[in-house]
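Example for tutorial group B:
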């Protein structure tokens, strides 16, 4: 009794099993027709994101506000550049985060805009951990 594809596309929540995602790897899923990047961040990526001075950010937001408490290793963001809606590439750019090749916006490993024309951070969709290895988006 699972919802049909049209219901899912309209915004029904989806569950994602994180078990196969290795540290340092990203996966892309779709929710409401939007690409969602799920990143299993390394210790280095987490430390860099936590240590970035908020005063250096175009859209200041602490890393802790962009991840779930106790699950710092997982970043979940909507993979749409906030400049003109292009799809950035994961693990590219100067900040080991996301790079939008269309106009040069660069996001860090927390999905925060660090360089380029994008005015805001990558959006974080509504999601919850239903277990240590599974999330529900939506």
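The residue assignment follows.
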């Amino acid at each position: 009794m699972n919802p049909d594809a049209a219901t899912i596309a309209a915004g029904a929540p989806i569950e994602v099993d994180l078990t196969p995602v290795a540290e340092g790897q990203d996966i892309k899923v779709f929710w409401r027709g939007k690409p969602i990047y799920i990143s299993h961040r390394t210790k280095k990526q987490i430390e860099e994101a936590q240590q970035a001075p908020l005063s250096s950010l175009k859209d200041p937001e602490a890393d802790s506000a962009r991840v779930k408490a106790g699950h710092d290793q997982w970043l979940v963001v909507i993979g749409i550049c906030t400049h003109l809606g292009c799809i950035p590439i994961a693990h590219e750019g100067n900040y080991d985060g996301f790079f939008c090749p269309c106009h040069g916006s660069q996001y860090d490993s927390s999905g925060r805009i660090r360089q380029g024309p994008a005015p805001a951070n990558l959006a974080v969709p509504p999601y919850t951990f239903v277990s240590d290895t599974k999330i529900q988006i939506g």
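The longest helix spans residues 43-51. Compare this with the pattern of hydrophobic and polar residues in the output above.
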